[in-house]
Amino acid sequence: MTRSVIRRPWKTIIAAVALSAGFLAPAATAASAQQRAAAVPPGDYCGPQEGFYGGSQYTYAEVRVCLHFEDGGPPEVRVSNQNNSYYWGGAWYNASANYPAHWQAEGTVSKGGQTAYYSVSHRQESSNGWAGGGQLPAGECGAATVTLNFRQSGPYWTGSENDIDSGERTYQVDVPC
């Protein structure tokens, strides 16, 4: 008995279309994520500003962590430091080039089941300053959980007993669409 083979080219075409559609799906998903990220209005979306004193109450700084978005650039974590000052001789003075503050902030940003780590440091020679870096886990709008550990030496008082140490802080930062 002889078998005849019947070729059905349409099955091959359907299989090829199904396979190529599978390769296109991730690109479409990536494009959708980029469009959602682009939908976030440019700006800084921040946790609350908190004031911290050093161990001996001779240094002070107000710290805030923000998620920064701008048109065309990748979103990043920014930490701002305001009213950075020290107490000496009965008065408060701002950080300066002669008496700078050295600080580091690190933590996490969690959103949608993803977590990204950040670490920024800065030599601050004035009352106000900021440093940025690190990527966000997703550039989409919505609520993100941000942790912050802030540590500063100076200005003026540089012994470790005078350091500012925030301990771990946790904030919810809402990013609008």
Provide a descriptive summary of the structure in words.
The longest helix has 30 residues, at 9-38. Strand 3 and strand 4 form a beta hairpin. The relative contact order is 0.21. By secondary structure, the chain is α+β, with helices and mostly antiparallel strands. It contains one helix and ten strands. It has one helix spanning 9-38, and strands at residues 43-46, 50-53, 59-69, 76-88, 91-94, 101-111, 114-124, 129-135, 142-153, 164-175.
Strand content: over 45%
Total strands: the figure is 10
Query: SSE string, helix = H, strand = E?
Result: HEEEEEEEEEE
3D shape: elongated
Radius of gyration, in angstroms, nearest whole number: 26 Å
What's the overall average pLDDT, rounded?
A: 83
Instruction: Report, as a whole number of angstroms, the end-to-end distance.
Output: 70 Å
Question: Total helix count?
Answer: 1
- Low-pLDDT runs of 5+ residues are 1-37
Global structural class: alpha+beta
Task: Give me the secondary-structure topology.
Elements (H helix, E strand, L loop, with lengths): L8 H30 L4 E4 L3 E4 L5 E11 L6 E13 L2 E4 L6 E11 L2 E11 L4 E7 L6 E12 L10 E12 L2
Antiparallel strand pairs: 1-3, 2-3, 3-4, 4-5, 4-8, 6-7, 6-9, 9-10
